[in-house]
């Protein structure tokens, strides 16, 4: 199993449409072969203009993805399948202003709410660091992926519960 961690910026509107919610694929007979056997999926992609083809090429099934918007990480997930969608069917069908060919399915989606500085601490980045789409270097991933997921989920739960008054 892979131990890659990817930090991925999101566009909230498109993210809500195809990751936060699953996409029903049963109405689309023209979907790519990689999605032919799926009734539904969570889908995301790497912007073709990002210049990160080599980063996308390193994505493997089971890798951890941390999605963020602004100063907050909003979800964790695992990579399912990756594929090149030469016809841009996925982006043309589901996303606005996000034409792309480098698509991946998202599994084990978990909403979180963790400040950017908290995730930066896990990977030994400065508190104000903003990554862009990237793979975290091996030397910065010092814990098992499930431990990272659990810590982020625990932080979210701890900080979303009403605090007892003293």
TrEMBL record:
GO molecular-function term, one example from the UniProt record: endonuclease activity
Keywords for the protein's UniProt record, in alphabetical order: Endonuclease, Hydrolase, Nuclease
Protein name: Putative restriction endonuclease
Species of origin: Halorubrum alkaliphilum
